[in-house]
């Protein structure tokens, strides 16, 4: 069986979880079958560091050349198919291009339906359906959670029989760390902070609970510099800016933060999966997160849940974990066991089974 992952995400995303997903799949599938990531021209930094792919890395495409590079990628893909004849074509993002000379089966992975569900936040219309053509042209669709599958059925009206769930894995090599970066006790938040991520409610909870902000710092990893409205909220709540620490860095820095955090908090109103939950869990870090469908799917009873819309309930949950060593240790040990159920080898084997069945 010959499998081809196309260039779509690698010519669209500089960094990100989606491109990592395909690199990890490619690594695992290569152990059993012929598999290639084809990205003739791309600017993805993760792929640049991955030796086993076909293509050329550009720091960025020169101005006004996107259409030219896109055409080059299309032509190169059709040439590769002509001479290598893959049986599986797995599109890595929702572009409408499908090579005309491909005669095998077409697959697409869907990660979440955030833009469709939160269309108002993005100034889209209520009938915004950006994945429609890519979904219709696929022989089978992979969803990274049962929640995403449910949303696909509800929003796009796709038959459940066409959708297969394959959970993501947590990187086993995600273990390198430095000595403690933050010496004081702290709560850790990771990633983007806009819109449905609900970071502002976390800031309010941190500000209101003097018990928390007196004893702990809030460390924010990634997601760019604090926005003006975030700075305003910090000032309005008289938060000591030394108590809120903004850090950027690589996986080693992030892993170090997970290992030393007193609590990892994930307050999102919606997610397609929630990989940081598994990253925290694999590092014995206790977790408090939103009571949403997908987080329960991943963590079961091994996290402390709260209503993401209730600042008061968030405070109660955070305090219960932070000020009880028994609760904290119990959550950490159970979360560690949960993370062991999510591996890239398992994800790859489930994906291969779907390929074979289709």
Number of strands: 13
Ends apart, CA distance between termini: 12 Å
- Global Rg: 21 Å
Provide the domain count. 2
What is CATH's topology name of the largest domain? Rossmann fold
Instruction: Please give the order of strands in the largest beta sheet.
Output: 3-2-1-4-5-6-7
Report mean pLDDT, rounded to a whole number: 94
Strand content: 15-25%
Tell me the helix content: 40-55%
Task: Explain what the structure shows.
The chain is an alpha/beta fold and 358 residues long. The protein folds into 2 domains: 2-169 and 343-357, Glycogen Phosphorylase B (Rossmann fold), CATH 3.40.50; 186-339, Glycogen Phosphorylase B (Rossmann fold). 41% of the residues lie in helices and 16% in strands. The protein contains 15 helices and 13 strands. Strand 2 (34-42), helix 2 (45-48) and strand 3 (54-57) form a beta-alpha-beta unit. It starts with a strand and ends with a helix. The mean pLDDT is 94.
